[in-house]
Amino acid sequence: MRVLVTVQSFLTEKCCDRLYLYDGNVTENKDLIIELSGRREPNENYTTFNSNIMVLVFTSDSAGEYEGFNFTFDAIDGEK
């Protein structure tokens, strides 16, 4: 099993807010799937490749307020 994340909405402060998606239960650079910031299009998909676990880490400077983000998560079978 793998994890599939689909963007429903995403709007954060491009300069200062970051959302990191990691493959597995660690937050090392080698496991980084993508770093998101600013605006993303609905229905963009991201998936784990080596694990059935995905860790999300959000960082912010706490200045400014944007809409934030909304995702759906699914478990999927299969290879890359």
From TrEMBL:
The keyword Disulfide bond applies. Residues 3-73 form the CUB domain. The keyword Plastid does not apply. Keywords: Disulfide bond. Gene3D superfamilies: Spermadhesin, CUB domain (2.60.120.290). InterPro entries: CUB_dom, Sperma_CUB_dom_sf. Transmembrane segments: none annotated. It comes from the Eukaryota. This is CUB domain-containing protein. It comes from Panagrolaimus davidi. The lineage of its organism: Eukaryota, Metazoa, Ecdysozoa, Nematoda, Chromadorea.
